[in-house]
Write a sequence for this structure.
């Protein structure tokens, strides 16, 4: 089969989409692992000297102090976030591995982005509930970055990609 400019453009668009999916899979993997390490430090499984940890458990405690949230509730919130990040990570790896264009891997692609968009949306809501605006812009930028990654290639790519 002879390659045409259109088929080359489709292949390039699919390649770009897969690279972006792999990027988010790797990035979320690092976030998940750093938060998991932080939780393990908080439980005493890892020593305080363990360098690779997010510090987010302490951050959650500082964020929720306004309402006197007990440590157990903070630990459960953090555990829920870690679980959610783990699921999103797996979904992005699945999407990156299976996506081949309009006919292959679309389900995985939408599951992955749905999980991450809902995660960042939940953080935005939590920022408002706990009136912790200093991190809201970060969560909003991550929400927008995921949304743009999902939508922009679809709007600007070759028709069959």
């Amino acid at each position: 089969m002879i390659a045409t400019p259109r088929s080359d453009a489709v292949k390039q668009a699919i390649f770009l989409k897969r690279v972006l999916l792999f990027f988010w899979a790797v990035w979320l993997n690092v976030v998940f692992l750093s938060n998991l390490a932080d939780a393990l430090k908080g439980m005493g499984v890892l020593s305080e000297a363990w360098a690779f940890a997010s510090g987010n458990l302490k951050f959650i405690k500082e964020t929720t102090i306004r309402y006197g949230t007990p440590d157990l509730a903070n630990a459960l919130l953090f555990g829920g976030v870690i679980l959610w990040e783990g699921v999103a990570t797996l979904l992005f790896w699945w999407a990156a591995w299976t996506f081949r264009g309009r006919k292959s891997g679309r389900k995985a692609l939408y599951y992955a982005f749905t999980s991450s968009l809902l995660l960042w949306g939940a953080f935005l809501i939590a920022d408002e509930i706990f009136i912790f605006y200093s991190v809201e812009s970060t969560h909003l930028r991550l929400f927008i970055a995921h949304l743009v990654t999902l939508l922009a290639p679809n709007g600007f790519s070759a028709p069959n990609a």
Observations:
- The chain has a mean pLDDT of 91.
- The chain has one domain: 8-156.
- The radius of gyration is 19 Å.
- The longest helix spans residues 5-42.
